[in-house]
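Support request from a user on the community tier.

User writes: "When I paste my structure tokens into the form, the page sometimes reloads and wipes my input. The last time it worked, I copied everything first. Here is what I submitted, just in case something in the input itself triggers the reload:"
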């Protein structure tokens, strides 16, 4: 193809993802020329090209194309990570004094959505389910924003009790953040056995963190009792099932 510089099978030529000069430009990470480079290249879903080893390094800490900011993975690959983030948001509601009503733009489908509930873990696109969104504007803040969504302090307290208290929320939220990044980076590990061990470690770490948080919030509870309660918690079982489905 004289437009993008790709060498393509004739049967696939009419349907290939063509971007002018795609392989005639530099790698967006290392800035080496892609066309004359001896290193393998990789094409992201957005159509931009990148060295394969640069792509693996990039996805160890970020999941967006460095050129257009669209998700560098397919939506099927990102679904477990986004599900974990959505679960973390449901378990840790934003306090009324921190509430915001925002307008977002999705970097993946480019949909613009108004009057969305802000959360520090991210705002999910209602159209494509992506968390790769950008806050364009904030219309309300604080208790005015909470009142806009009909939130009350009593509801906030009930939400906290339903998931085991603020200590549990903070612990599980931190674990989900780490689990999301590790899951994406782990998907490119050459050793499949290491991937299995890593997934098991994520679940074990989550159970241990939730148990520690429960024990700290209840001084009379032993570590063994806290671990049992954390293992029996419905939200924990849901997360484990998500990880097993991903396997």
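"...and here is what came back when it finally went through:"
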């Amino acid at each position: 193809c004289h437009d993008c510089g790709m060498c393509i099978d004739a049967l696939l030529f009419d349907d290939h993802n063509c971007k002018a000069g795609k392989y005639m430009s530099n790698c967006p990470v290392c800035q080496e020329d892609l066309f004359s480079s001896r290193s393998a290249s990789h094409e992201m879903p957005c159509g931009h090209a990148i060295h394969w080893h640069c792509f693996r390094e990039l996805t160890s800490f970020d999941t967006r194309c460095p050129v257009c900011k669209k998700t560098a993975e397919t939506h099927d690959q990102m679904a477990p990570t986004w599900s974990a983030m959505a679960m973390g948001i449901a378990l840790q509601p934003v306090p009324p004094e921190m509430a915001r009503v925002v307008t977002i733009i999705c970097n993946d489908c480019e949909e613009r959505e108004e009057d969305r509930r802000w959360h520090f873990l991210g705002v999910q696109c209602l159209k494509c389910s992506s968390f790769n969104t950008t806050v364009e504007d904030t219309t309300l803040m604080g208790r005015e924003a909470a009142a806009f969504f009909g939130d009350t302090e009593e509801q906030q307290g009930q939400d906290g009790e339903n998931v085991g208290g603020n200590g549990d929320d903070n612990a599980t939220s931190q674990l989900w953040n780490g689990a999301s990044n590790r899951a994406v980076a782990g998907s490119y590990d050459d050793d499949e056995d290491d991937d299995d061990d890593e997934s098991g470690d994520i679940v074990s770490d989550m159970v241990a963190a939730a148990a520690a948080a429960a024990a700290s919030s209840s001084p009379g509870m032993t570590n063994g009792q806290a671990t049992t309660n954390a293992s029996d918690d419905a939200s924990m079982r849901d997360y484990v099932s998500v990880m097993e489905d991903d396997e």
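Agent notes: The reload is a front-end session timeout and is unrelated to the input. The CA atoms of residues 110 and 133 lie 9 Å apart. The helical segments are 52-58, 75-91, 142-148, 153-162, 166-186, 192-217, 223-232, 234-246. Escalated to web team.
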